[in-house]
Amino acid sequence: MGLAILGFLTLLLLTAPVIAPHDPAAVDPDHRLEGPTSTFPLGTDHLGRCLLSRLLHGARWSLGMAAVASLVILVIGTSVGGVAGYYRGPLDAVLMRVVDVLLAFPSLIPAMAIAGVLGPGLAHVLVAIVAVWWAGYARLVRGLVLSVRERPFVDAARALGARDGGILRRHILPNVLPPVLVLASVETGTLILAMASLSFLGLGAQPPTPEWGAMLNDGRGFLLTAPQLMIYPGLAISLAVVGFNLVGEAFPDYLDPHLTRMR
User: Fold this and answer.
1) What is the per-residue pLDDT across 9-35, written as a single tens digit (0 to 9) for each?
2) pTM of the full predicted structure?
3) Digit-coded pLDDT (tens) for 204-230
4) Where do runs of H (alpha helix) occur along the chain?
5) Which domain holds residue 254?
6) Residue 102 lies in a domain
């Protein structure tokens, strides 16, 4: 079910320029706040822009930026955690103290502070999210590496003259990636919520960019008169988060060899 949801959203993301009935930024004051019609299947917003077109194009920003952020966070967190867990000592102590500071606050709070300093914009939100979210990955990877580095096959590789970089790439990383990928699949949904929250607060996408969080912000002034302006992007965000969470819950079943043999 999770893959079906994500596949459907990905299809919409890739085909948005083709299937969107209108330009998502085209303003038409004569048709503002209209209900669903044959011309505007989901109606229009307060500027007369097609809601369906904006939702379709918004998937490219909301899901695309979350995917990029998740990939960068995965690389940084895995690299920092792997180095800290493998070498230990002073380097481990310094890196983990940085992680402790970042994890001492709810992730959205320092992200808001960084985005506020950098100024509004999706690129700045991406930097803020990455600067904060990698810490959880680093903590998990460090713990896994500390366990794997003591196993006999790592000692054997070291005795045969393998370099540290080769041991990390060929022997340790493949054994720690499965749980990290599970975390990444679940955290991607959290990243979508975080980026939408920052856009809702005015720190992310700026008009006329059709990003789902920005669409929520645009529609909040019309909650009582035109609730669909917030309902549609809210449902889109919820659907994406549910899809990633379902995939994250299913990942351990397929990555655990004991469960695979039982099936």
Assistant:
1) 999 989 999 999 999 999 989 999 998
2) 0.87
3) 888 888 999 999 999 998 988 899 999
4) 2-19, 51-87, 89-103, 108-118, 122-148, 152-159, 164-167, 173-200, 212-219, 228-255, 257-262
5) 48-262
6) yes
